[in-house]
Amino acid sequence: MKKLKYYALCSYGIAATKRHLKRIPKENLVIVINTWDEPYLQEAVAWCKENQIEYYVTQSDGTPATGKNSVFDLFLQSDNDYMVLVDGDDFITPHGLVVYNMIVQSENPPDAVALSYQYGIVPNQGYTWSLSYMNRDRSAWTHAADPYDQECIHGFGYRCFQRSKQWWDRALSGNLVEHWDDFTKQLSDKHQELMQFEYKYINQWETHCRIVLYSRNAAQYRFDKDLMVGEDTLQFFQLKDAMVKTGLNLHFLHEIYPTYVYDQRIGGTVQWYNETNAGHGWLEWMTGCVEKFTVYENQGKMHEIQIPWVDFLDFPVDYKPNTLGLVNFPARKIRY
Questions:
Q1: How many distinct structural domains can be found in the chain?
Q2: Least buried of 169, 268, 274, 328, by fewest C-beta within 10 Å?
Q3: pLDDT in tens, 104-155
């Protein structure tokens, strides 16, 4: 029996942190606190102690990569065979617990699993957000419900990284981002460059595919802390390169029934970056990604090879995936 743990990387929002215990059994949950927010740190540690949850506090430098790499360090120091990496404000569905366990306990489990057709939630109504959120100034929020309690926030679901053929045609031709001055022309050109990389080297369908499940082998491939946004896409390219050159076993999981939900209702690094400096944050993070992707391409680390799908899970005839009501299931046998 292979040992699987869920590592939730948390940096703010105690309600989001507490929610993981609602979704993941305590014995399978590890909370990793990586934050500059001292009040949140104290509150999160106290909650973990009170509930006897395994937790660690790791050193933060403000970059997503450093936090995620600290989770890898903890995982590799443990006796766990596999881990699921959960961003602190996202969540796992009950169906996800079933699926990830089935994958890990299968005859030949992958080293890493990336999500395709991923499900996300964006805010709809009930509050507005502010840049001061990144300074944790809660008094600056205007809202009808507590924005730190995702159980109460209005939102709507969508397939967050899927794009239509028409969208890709416009993006690849440089006609998606409108431009009317020098800055917006730079923005449009950089977006076109970025999308050409993502279309060619991901799956010609999505702009990003999140890696969620890692073996000890896959956890040796680190996130690049030079990138504040896009570090997970670069890591996807690293793992794809390792698949080609070392035989690392990388698979796609098609998220018809969500296992991992990308919850954007309380913002995050991408939200902050995109609002910073009247749009200049967009140009900054896209430029960083294009520069890194160009280096990888020149080094022969980018590959158009197709990644195999998780298609070996066989559910009981009467299995009904519990996705917390996000997606309904048809009256037929569930297969992957």
A1: 1
A2: 328
A3: 999 999 999 999 999 998 876 544 444 334 444 444 444 434 544 555 556 7
Q: Is there a domain that residue 33 lies in?
A: yes
> Containing domain of residue 194, as a range?
4-298
**Residue among 255, 250, 273, 4 nearest 120 (CA):** 255
Q: What is the pLDDT of residues 220-238, one digit of tens each?
A: 999 999 998 999 999 999 9
Residue 314 resides in a domain? no
Tell me which residue of 121, 87, 118 sits closest to 253, measured CA to CA. Answer: 118
- What is the CB neighbour count within 10 angstroms for residue 138? 13
- Whole-number Å distance between alpha carbons of 73 and 57: 12
Domain annotation covers residue 334: no
Contact between 231 and 225 under an 8 Å Cβ cutoff? The reply is yes
Residue 14 vs residue 276, higher pLDDT = 14
Residue 10 within a domain: yes
CA dihedral 89, 263, 176, 173 (to 10 degrees): 80
